[in-house]
Amino acid sequence: MKRLFYLLFAGMLTGILLFGSCEKVVYPPPEIPDTVSYSLDIQPIWDNKCVSCHNGGLDPDLRPENSYASLMDGEYINVDEPGESKLMKKLDSSPHDARATKAEKQLILVWIEEGAKNN
Ligand code: HEC
Is 18 inside any structural domain? Predict the structure, then answer.
């Protein structure tokens, strides 16, 4: 009887350990590509969510022909500390926090982490 109890206990423990370790596997969100492209992934966010206001009269100028230079020249991007970028801080504070989705902000952050290339 005692042996059966130990067997059950050992089985349960193994189950918990296995299940527990399975739960810790973290998959990257599917919408983040391996290499984020500025022109294909980031500019469309500006086009859809920002250019209605940031169209030249308001810094940063996020129109396709000017956005990259405007972000770099205005020092909105901090490649050494991506989360500290002026751009990311803006997108985390009201009312700008509602102007891009969580997934879009994540994509922008990964783009900066990858070196904020004009790719
Ligand atoms: C409804 C109009 C509007 C939209 C849409 C908008 N913005 Fe803005 N944004 C402003 C205004 C007005 C300011 C200046 C006042 C302020 O700092 O909040 C500003 C300021 C900023 C600044 C700080 C500029 C500085 O020099 O301090 C950044 C960065 C910025 N916006 C990025 C964005 C991005 C990225 C988007 C799209 C996801 C966006 N904005 C969408 C109106 C808008």
Answer: no
